[in-house]
Amino acid sequence: MKALLASIKNSIKDLLPIVFVIAFFQLVVLKQPIPNITEILIGSLLVVLGLALFIQGLELGLFPIGESLATAFAYRGSMGWLLLFSFGLGFSTTVAEPALIAIASEAATVASEGGMIEHTEEAKESYATGLRYTVAFSVGLAILIGVIRIIKGWPIQYLIIGGYCLVVITTAFAPKEIIGIAYDSGGVTTSTITVPLVTALGVGLASSIKNRNPMIDGFGLIAFASLTPMIFVMLYGIALNL
User: Under 8 Å CB-to-CB from 123, ≥6 apart: which residues?
Assistant: First the structure.
């Protein structure tokens, strides 16, 4: 109960700047009363409770299970199973991400109106599904590469620099219509479930390997999860134009 109350207190602190900004522009700049103040207050209360419960859920469930699975795989020396689990974790948590589903559906509609695909529901659904699975595959591959990096001790900065060089190169050949979608897809993949699970996986793995520092080696997996979708979505666009 004390931990929950502390989470509620922290959630209130996090939301206060947003409340102040909205109130300032509504009352001072626009000089208008805040509409539906009762509904807004109720909604804000629910947001505070939701954030507090979500944080408690991360601390009680997702972080421990991610770290324990990584530690178990490391101690058993199951390299193949660890890599398969890493890929499956990235793929499964991404393919069902609501933000990605919405972006893929909107992208299919825009592609249909722009003449990239046929103006039929079947074509739009196929385009959106292909986009979703392309992003999910790329995130799974990113987590897999990130786990190999932790095991091998590769410096993360070189992989990130190389990855963004590939983004720039791929951008030069990708259709103009897909570039914006590709860049946005890197953001929508970092969902509320993927981030804590993947972070816990990296920290747990780095903690269980000798000569690995969790602060240095345990983080950085999310950077790959944001980077690889840009490359793969642009490759997806290039493949559709062949």
Answer: 108, 112, 117
Q: Which stretches of the chain drop beneath a pLDDT of 50? A: none
- CB proximity list for 138: less than 8 A, separation 6 or greater: 228, 229, 231, 232, 233
Say how many CA atoms lie within 13 Å of 107 toward its Cβ. 24
122 and 208 in contact (C-beta within 8 Å)? no
- pLDDT one-digit tens code per residue, 166-188: 999 999 999 888 898 899 888 87
Say what the pTM is. 0.78
Which among 171, 173, 155 is positioned nearest to 227, based on CA atoms?
A: 171
Q: What DSSP element (H or E) covers 91?
A: helix 79-95
Q: Are the CB atoms for 218 and 200 separated by under 8 Å?
A: no
- The contacts of residue 12 (CB under 8 Å, 6+ apart) are 48
Single-letter amino acid, residue 236: Y
Q: Is-contact 109 209, C-beta < 8 A?
A: no
- Separation between Cα atoms, residue 84 and residue 226, nearest integer Å: 20
- 58: tokens are 């991360």
Chain centre distance of CA 161 = 20
Question: What is the CB neighbour count within 10 angstroms for residue 29?
Answer: 8
pLDDT of amino acid 120: 84
